[in-house]
Design goal:
Order of helices and strands: HHHHHEEHHHHHEEE
Strand order of the largest sheet: 3-5-4
Number of strands: 5
CATH topology of the largest domain: Arc Repressor Mutant, subunit A
Strand content: 5-15%
Number of helices: 10
Distance between the termini: 92 Å
CATH architecture of the largest domain: Orthogonal Bundle
Oligomer: single chain
Shape: elongated
Length: 239
């Protein structure tokens, strides 16, 4: 009889464990916006709620996936800046209150980001493309070097030899190595987004370049014939 009693006890214990597990929500699933301070690198439903709120308010967050990555960080900082909060990317009670208030007022951010010095505006989608250029083409360079490669894209907008849109310039065949080898699709970090925004806002460190190249890597003889304007890090910028 002992083996049977032990068997019954084990079955009962298993049933209780399964039942308890069924009614215990997963910790990440149970999180709601405001249940904790959210920082970059965190995951959970509260991050997803944050991303949804930002998206409703007109901020570009990419996939609403519950992962606090670089693009979400950039949008959080942009929201904090718009609402006169400390733009540190940390989502605490102040940021959450501002988010809730903005949604209640049906406030929505403009879908454009205007350059003060350049006098141009780019969509949030285009800003993401520019951030991808900065990250994939120059993430090993200085911050100025990252701004510079974005400036080249913007300079091409004003040159009749190139397509008339940022998307057209970025995806012009063989224009950018990172597009060809797939690195362009890596997720940009917050620094890349900031470099893109600074370039849009008017920082132009190249002197008007529409080309750049790494002399240690390029095999294109034609590019060497272009008049050199400046060298920033490993890149030569040319007209």
């Amino acid at each position: 009889m002992k083996p049977m009693r032990w068997g019954v006890l084990l079955v009962l214990a298993l049933a209780v464990w399964i039942s308890w597990g069924a009614i215990q929500p997963d910790q990440a699933e149970a999180q709601t916006l405001g249940s904790r301070v959210i920082k970059r690198g965190m995951v959970g439903d509260d991050v997803k709620a944050l991303q949804n709120s930002l998206k409703v308010l007109g901020y570009q967050v990419g996939a609403v996936d519950g992962i606090y990555g670089g693009q979400t960080l950039f949008s959080v900082k942009a929201f904090q800046k718009d609402f006169k909060l400390v733009a540190d990317g940390v989502v605490g009670s102040g940021t959450i209150k501002a988010l809730q208030g903005a949604k209640a007022r049906q406030w929505r951010r403009s879908t454009t980001s205007r350059g003060a010095s350049r006098g141009q505006s780019v969509s949030r989608e285009d800003l993401t493309l520019l951030a991808r250029v900065a990250f994939s083409e120059a993430r090993g360079e200085s911050y100025q070097g990252q701004v510079a490669v974005v400036a080249v894209v913007l300079n091409r907008l004003k040159d009749s030899r190139f397509p008339k849109t940022i998307k057209g310039i970025v995806f012009e065949p063989w224009a950018f190595t990172a597009v060809n080898d797939g690195q362009f699709w890596l997720e940009p970090n917050a620094t890349a987004y900031k470099a893109a925004q600074d370039a849009v806002n008017g920082w132009e460190p190249t002197g008007g370049a529409v080309y750049y190249y790494n002399p240690a890597k390029t095999t294109n003889k034609w590019i060497w014939s272009r008049p050199v304007l400046k060298t920033i890090g490993k890149h030569i910028f040319a007209k």
